[in-house]
Design goal:
The protein has 117 residues and is an all-alpha fold. It has five helices and no strands. It has a domain of 81 residues. It is elongated and about 70 Å long.
């Protein structure tokens, strides 16, 4: 048997509250493990709702083109505007990605949010 302490046992001791000074604002360690999961759930829910809105917009644009309410010139004008705003959107996406608490809990929450959102 090895005399090296098991890192998982030590981690569970810390998160289980056996060491009283491991808390922030009086919250336990489990709360901080749940924050990435909740952030992933919220983001997954928002992404699924945004994809539904995009799908509805594509169907509405196709119907507008079919019935002649919308012309290809109008569509090209809107696509040029969207292309011009692309770098700004990527900038804000990079800022959001930098703020997210990435980890296994986040990706599990994201998958659950996408599945059940």
């Amino acid at each position: 048997m090895s005399t090296v302490p098991n890192i998982w046992d030590e981690l569970f001791k810390i998160l289980g509250g056996q060491i009283p000074n491991v808390s922030l604002f009086g919250l336990s360690g489990y709360t901080f493990l749940a924050i990435p999961l909740v952030a992933g759930l919220i983001l997954g829910f928002l992404i699924k709702k945004a994809l539904k809105i995009v799908l509805i917009a594509v169907v509405a644009i196709a119907a507008g083109l079919y019935f002649g309410v919308l012309t290809m010139g109008d569509l090209q004008k809107y696509l040029q505007t969207a292309k011009g705003l692309g770098p700004e959107a990527m900038h804000y996406a990079a800022i959001l990605f930098a703020m997210l608490p990435l980890g296994a809990g986040f990706f599990i929450g994201l998958i659950i949010g996408l599945k059940f959102g």
